[in-house]
Design brief:
40% of the residues lie in helices and 10% in strands. By secondary structure, it is of the alpha+beta class.
Length: 290
């Protein structure tokens, strides 16, 4: 018969060890007789008594004063959870030319539309195809179309604007807005269509060359229907700029996302914005790779 003493700190083996870090003789070791880490602050040392390979006793005592204090501190360090990774907030800021290009894509209806953008005039005086409109909106659409004929010719691009008015009128019908406005007088709906189009083409508003009243002469609606036209613009084109403030150099226009509603004059301006922004973006790329 013989004796073998094994030492462990809080269940962690100190000596001897097998190749996997745990002596198989410890299988079946009874729990320590005394408390754990609360005694002495460093935990406990467990002495295991074996006779002919059989565990017959175990004694636990505080690590403090046992000579294994350094080992206990090392084990405690290994058990400490790793601190959580530090998360830093990264603020991504678009360059002005990138911001402008993204805004232009929203105005015209996407990157492909921006690539293909031209300044060809819209068809002059394109008629409203009432037969293609939803049945419940047809009567109001026809009444609005008749009121459009009451307007005095616009000071510029009269034929193109009339086409844009009727196209937006058809869009409003298909999107259900005319059904929502079924109890609104046709003159007020007409004023809303006009206001939305001229605002989308930078013809009226802050810094624009004309007042709203210039485009509704003959209609009898002198007050701009801003709330209603803004609702229509949001329905058709979505928010004007979803990433905070719009580009500082961009005109304050309604975003409709459809070049078919933009007159040649404004599309020519958008082409200028596009080419300048792309030139600046290409120059920045050359500096970055140079």
């Amino acid at each position: 018969m013989g004796e073998r003493w094994l030492y462990g700190v809080d269940g962690g083996l100190l000596e001897p060890e097998d190749e996997w870090g745990r002596d198989p003789w410890l299988d079946g070791v009874p729990p320590p007789r005394e408390g754990g880490r609360a005694q002495g602050g460093l935990g406990t040392v467990t002495e295991v008594v074996l006779i002919d390979g059989q565990v017959v006793d175990s004694v636990s005592r505080p690590v403090s004063g046992s000579g294994y204090e350094c080992a206990a501190l090392e084990l405690a360090h290994l058990r400490e959870p790793a601190p959580p990774p530090r998360v830093e907030r990264v603020i991504v800021r678009e360059e002005p030319q990138e911001q402008m290009l993204h805004w232009l894509e929203r105005v015209v209806g996407g990157k492909e539309a921006l690539d293909a953008l031209d300044d060809e005039p819209l068809p002059l005086g394109e008629p409203l195809e009432a037969g293609l409109l939803p049945l419940g909106s047809r009567d109001l659409a026809c009444a609005v179309d008749e009121h459009l004929d009451l307007l005095e010719p616009a000071p510029i691009l009269a034929g193109q604007l009339l086409t844009a008015y009727r196209r937006l009128l058809a869009t409003a019908a298909h999107e259900g807005m005319l059904h929502l406005w079924r109890d609104v007088p046709p003159a007020k709906v007409t004023a809303t269509i006009v206001h939305t189009v001229v605002k989308a083409n930078a013809l009226t508003g802050a810094g624009a060359p004309f007042s709203y009243g210039t485009f509704v002469r003959g209609l009898g609606e002198g007050t701009a229907p801003s709330a209603r036209s803004r609702s229509l613009a949001l329905l058709v084109g979505g928010s004007q700029w979803p990433h905070g403030r719009s580009p500082s150099d961009a005109p304050g226009v309604y975003v409709l996302g459809d070049t078919g509603l933009l007159v040649s004059r404004f599309r020519n301006e958008l082409i200028t914005y596009r080419d300048l922004a792309r030139t600046a973006d290409a120059a920045r790329g050359e500096v970055a790779t140079g």
